[in-house]
Amino acid sequence: MKRFNSINKFRFLIIIFLIIFLVQAAYVIIFANSLNSITALQHDRIITIVALFIFIELVLGLYIYFYIDKSLSYIFDPLKNVFDELENGKLQISLPYQFRNKPLDQLSIPIRNMLANLQQFNREKKNKIKEFKDRLTLIMKNIDDAIIIINENFQIVYVNDIAKHLLGIISDEDYPSLMDFHFEGGVLKYFKEVLSKKILLPERKIYFPKIKKHVTLRNGIVHNTEGSFKGIVFLITDITLDKLEKTNTKSKNSS
Predict the structure, then answer these.
(1) Phi then psi for 209, rounded to 5 degrees?
(2) Which of 65, 115, 171, 183 has the fewest CB atoms lying closer than 10 Å?
(3) Under the phi-then-psi rule, with left for phi > 0, alpha for psi from -120 to 50, and beta for the rest, what region is 238?
(4) Distances (CA, A) of 83 to 38, 90, 210
(5) How far is CA 225 from CA 12, 108, 131, 228, in A?
(6) Are 232 and 150 in contact (CB under 8 A)?
(7) pLDDT averaged per 10 residues in sequence order, the chain, 255 residues
(8) DSSP code of 99?
(9) CA dihedral (163, 168, 174, 179) positive or negative
């Protein structure tokens, strides 16, 4: 059996009260008809008053029965709109004018306090993320390995200077695809294999003609909290920096 919600329960109570009022009115009419000690005028007045009360009760009862949804919507829709905005990530919210009136006026202060706390938490979270990002960027800039980070669309979202010099990646500002650049045969083969499989592959050593030595290729797969693929981190180690600098110097002089 389907359970009643609160509104249906309230409607059920309205029907019960209307039935009680009608039974009571019918009892009064029957009792008035059975009295011989009252005049016809008094009898008519009793019937008229009872009929008037029945009419008023029916009108009010039916009005409440059919319009209770709209009445509750008028009260709760502004509150729902506020939480819909929060669900969509919007924290800069102005409370609607309905919160100045009863019964929502009692919720205005707690909701404003909640919004202020959420805004403060959001600012602190962004500052913390920026702090970690700056720290991570500094670390990646100062290590002796080449790093490339791509997103789920295989676009480059970060590449350090060593990777740019080693692989000839000019810029990552416009999020180009990793495959927009021409790589050495072994590097290109490794990149394509990782991109196609989207799994963690064992490290691989290849000969890199540009610096005339073997380098080590590694990769890491990035997932979100739901386990969905979000990107790949490529790492190239065992780079001889002095050879790379000499190679870059020769390239600049020849150009």
Answers:
(1) -60, -30
(2) 171
(3) left
(4) 63, 9, 58
(5) 46, 34, 21, 8
(6) yes
(7) 56 76 77 73 77 79 68 70 77 74 74 84 87 81 84 87 82 72 84 89 88 89 88 87 59 52
(8) G
(9) negative
CB-side neighbour CA atoms (13 Å) of 248: 15
Asked whether the beta carbons of 178 and 154 are under 8 A apart, the reply is yes
CA-nearest of 179, 151, 145 to 164 is 145
Query: Is the entire prediction scored with pTM above 0.70?
Result: no
**Cβ neighbours for 68, distance < 8 A, ≥ 6 positions apart:** 7, 10, 11
Amino acid 72 reads L
How far apart (Å, rounded) are the C-alpha atoms in residues 99 and 117? 19
Cα separation, 102 vs 118, whole angstroms: 25
